[in-house]
Amino acid sequence: MFSRDNLFFGGIFVAAIAVFMIWGLNYLAQHHTLFILATIFGLFMAFNIGGNDVANSFGTSVGAKTLTVKQALIIAAIFELSGAMLAGAAVTDTIRKGIVDISQMDFDPMLYVFVMMGALLSSALWLMYASTKGYPVSTTHAIVGGILGGSIALGYVTMPHGGNIFGLIHWDQITKIAISWVVSPILGGMASYGIYWYLKKNILDYNDDVEAKINGIKLQVKELKASYNESIATEEEKVSHNEKLQELNRLQKKSNAFYALRIHAPLMAAFATAMVAGMLLFKGLKHAHLQLDNTQIFMLIATFSTLAYGIVYAIVKVMHKDSPHKATMRLFSMLQVLTASAFAFSHGANDIANAIGPFAAIIDILATGQINAESPVPIIAMATFGIALVAGLWFIGKEVIQTVGSRITEIFPVTGFSAELGATFIILLATKLGIPVSSTHILVGAIIGIGMLNRNANWALMRPIAMAWIITLPAAGIMSAIFFALLKITFGY
After folding, report:
1. Domain segments of the chain as ranges
2. At how many degrees (to 10) do helices 235-254 and 205-226 cross?
3. What's the burial of 174, exposed, middle or buried (CB within 10 Å: 0-12/13-18/19+)?
4. Are 277 and 305 in contact (CB under 8 A)?
């Protein structure tokens, strides 16, 4: 509990909170109590996003033993924070995802502060519960449910008698979210199944066959030498023995155990790099204002992919001292670090908005006294919330990491890479098509796809996880409505 690492990371987290609190109290002329309370709720939400959403992103890498938990933390710290700082949204819509149309309500803007605070607290509590159980759930669904529940409660207390508060809900958005519950894991499973099937058929199975063939040849050589006695052998027997030995040596050299790895691994590396680069350029860096057109983006992707192909090809060429199996695991461990890092960057750039978005709306209302169409996100807030993500991963992320990394199915570097790449591909595709999907659901579905191909998926564990997915939105919504009412009463509105 009080280990050196825990004290170190805890100290950084507390120091970041203290600095942010001092900044906020100087930034705001009034409403200091609400600011402190909102900060606690927001950081609590970010902390639990780290313990659940970030943890499931690194679960496959840790489960495959490509990364230790501490190494995952370091990568998360670098790429989650850089994603949040460099590519995080400069502004966030105060009406999250257009779930509820509050423009039709006449109310004190401070009531909307309570909606956002209730949404943050309810989502955080649900995520904390899910994390303790080891259930990876969607933080986006949680915050959407929280805002939905709080907004319905807001409509109930502010709309004229007879007003239809449910008419304010954008049911088309809710329908899309509900569909994503089903579609996301299916798409993730299909993608990872296809990638892993390709790698298994063309590399793993080939390596096993060639290795068995080489071992058989080595055994024949050993038996041939054991049965041969040069001192009593005739000239004819000597010639025959040497011919057989040469033939076996020729067959052994012909059986190139690294052929499959040399052919298919660079191709897969190029494809993975294309997907990673595409996700970063189209999704992770969409708020960085790089001002690149599609032609320039595709040229960059092609350049990075070509470079990756050449690097991996060169690496395979110098791996001949290893066995094919060992070389394959080492190579895909390297590639898995690439996909995990990209996942972390994109997560920091986009999903941190689940915590910072509502908080940005809160602090903007406290500062201006009104609900604005856009709420600027202070850079210090983005940094502090990013640190909270990393702290959550360290302190409460282990259960989710174990679930994703080992409990759903067995994970090793090739399967972990397949799952991460499959998830990356579907996230990129959904982003380009404008389809709202859950990265958590996609990754879990991708892992299930691996388990289906290997016939070792833990379907018993998936039942409570699926139930947690279904419950996430309504559970967060109900709690948020209750917290909204309590905050309204407490502060006398």
Report:
1. 4-171+345-408+459-490
2. 170
3. middle
4. yes
Structure tokens at 76: 């998360």
Three-state secondary-structure class, residue 435: coil
3-state secondary structure of 456: coil
Measured CA to CA, the distance from residue 248 to residue 8 in angstroms comes to 60
Q: Which of 213, 225, 180 is nearest to 445 (CA)?
A: 180
Quickly tell me which residue has 């294309």 as its tokens. Answer: 274
The vertex-167 CA angle with 165 and 172, nearest 5°, equals 130
- Report the distance separating Cα 295 and Cα 375, nearest Å: 32
Could you count the other beta carbons within 10 Å of the beta carbon of residue 121?
27
DSSP result, 278-291: HHIIIIITTTS---
Please identify which residue in the block is written with the tokens 């008419």. Answer: 167
CB 361 within 8 A of CB 112: yes
Q: Token match 């590639």: residue?
A: 335
Tokens of 129: 């519960």
End-to-end CA separation in angstroms for the chain: 42
pLDDT by residue for the chain (493 residues), tens digit each? Answer: 567 878 888 899 999 999 999 999 999 999 999 999 999 999 999 999 989 988 887 888 888 888 887 888 788 778 777 776 665 554 445 444 567 777 777 788 899 999 999 999 999 999 999 999 999 998 888 998 999 999 999 988 887 766 777 877 888 878 877 887 788 899 999 999 999 999 999 999 988 888 778 778 778 878 877 787 777 777 787 777 777 777 767 766 656 667 888 899 999 999 989 988 887 777 666 666 677 888 888 999 999 999 999 999 999 888 876 777 888 888 999 898 888 887 777 666 666 777 888 898 899 999 998 887 777 778 888 889 888 988 898 889 888 988 988 899 989 999 999 998 898 888 777 766 766 678 889 999 999 999 999 999 999 999 999 999 999 999 999 999 999 999 999 998 8
